[in-house]
Amino acid sequence: MKRKYTYLFLVLAGVLVGALAFSHIDVTVPVAEKKIAVTSFSNDAAASPGVEHQPIRSLKDLNEAFVQLAESATPSVVTIFTEKTVNRKTISPFDLFGSPFDDFFNVPRDRGGQNGSKEVLRGLGSGVVVSADGYILTNNHVVDNADVIYIRTYENNKVAAKVVGKDPKTDLAVIKADVKGLKPIAIGDSDALRVGEWVIAIGSPLGENLARTVTQGIVSAKGRANVGLADYEDFIQTDAAINPGNSGGPLVNINGELVGINTAIASRTGGFEGIGFAVPSNMAKKVMQSLISNGKVTRGWLGVTIQDVDENIAKGLQLDPPEGVLVGTVVDDGPAASAGVKTGDVIIAIDGKKVTDTIELRNGIAETPPGTTVKLRVWRNGQVKLLSVRLSELPGKEEVAVEEKAEITDLLGFSVSELTSELASRYRLSRDKGAVLVTGIDPSSKAYRAGLRQGDLILSVNKKNVSTYKEFLAVAGSVKKGDLLFLLIERQGSKVYFAFNI
């Protein structure tokens, strides 16, 4: 009996000692106050420290930490509503026979007004407040081509908004609402984010009734590229639940800081499957500042094509170990060519930082302001060379107003774009510049019935040569309904004329 009490005493003593030991272990979860102010065109969206450490000794403390985190970030999230008016064309049975039968059946040549109808398409997304005076960061695809934009704030106020600038290459946009006193979010350092960290996503999935939904998960991976969502990709992958309507909302770390803009999900069913993607806050911040200051994003340009170096390429180049990125085409008179970069060079470092793959180099150059001189460390024929390159601005086609593009496309029945190297590759065309490409065509349009097709190269309009979108617009933009459009196009190496009344 005495031995039994001795064992019981030892067990109780062990429990007591363990409780005392663990009571002195603190697991801290920092929770931040909101602390940035992006004033009009100052754009210093830096979060100040101000983080208080909250010790966690129980599940209740952990629960309270997440509650405070959600309460801190949620007021900075808005729901974005968009409206776009489109013309819906009703196809007459006579259209199936083509224009030669119009006169026979006494069908008016212009039936757009009678057979057409206008429809308002409504969209929904999310956004995050980055300044107290109404600047809001979101995705480009949330507001692209919208005729009307308005937001609903945390206080449930409905406020009209307008686009400040859009960047399709990163799928980011900034809109401005005429409202004061909004609560901006702290912007964190996405480069410091680690795989496995806790994050929360906030947005309005599936509808307005689910506004400011909070979901929790971890950072599943960083640096995801080649997803096919944007030209410049460096996505944070997370398993925090993201659904349609979450686009443009914030991904927040446990400091209450913005570390990403939720953009898309990978799904076989269209629903949440645990793979979501967010644009890193460091990339989003640079794009945001440029859009607010200039209304557009300017990017650095090196003037080369590059590819990753795998083991086989490394063997062929006698490069051991495999590293860097391989230079393919060097654009004539481009920055790299002027600095002495040659085809076959392997870029192994830029400004002293090792280059691991093409995505890293491409994004790094793009984020560097034009006019900046960078130092390249290249491997050439067994020797390492140091080259200084002064970056130029990334060239691109001249942009025209969205409204103007939509108006001319609706009038002509087809859309065009300058032929870039990317489009030439997509349509398997040998030319890479100096032409205008038909990128889309309405099957019910007169242009389609005349024989024009997507992928055709337009060489002249009304007997005037065109090689840029600006030249095309100068000629085609002056025609009006009922006028004759006379096109010379190139298709599979053959030149063909098409003429039709628009």
TrEMBL record:
Main location group: periplasm
Database matches in SUPFAM superfamilies: PDZ domain-like (SSF50156), Trypsin-like serine proteases (SSF50494)
Pfam families, per the entry: PDZ_2 (PF13180), PDZ_6 (PF17820), Trypsin_2 (PF13365)
Residues bound to substrate: 83, 141, 171, 245-247
One example of a Gene Ontology biological process annotation: proteolysis
Subcellular location: Periplasm
GO cellular component: periplasmic space
Keyword Repeat among record annotations: yes
Oxidoreductase found in the keyword field: yes
Keywords: Hydrolase, Oxidoreductase, Periplasm, Protease, Repeat, Serine protease, Signal
Family matches, as PROSITE patterns: PDZ (PS50106)
Active site: 141, 171, 247
Enzyme Commission identifier(s): 1.3.1.74
Molecular function per GO: 2-alkenal reductase [NAD(P)H] activity; serine-type endopeptidase activity
Transmembrane segments: none
Gene3D superfamilies attached to this UniProt entry: 2.30.42.10, 2.40.10.120
Residue ranges annotated for the PDZ domain, each copy included: 291-357, 399-493
Superkingdom, natural source: Bacteria
UniProt similarity note: Belongs to the peptidase S1C family.
The protein, known as: Protease Do
Organism: Prosthecochloris aestuarii (strain DSM 271 / SK 413)
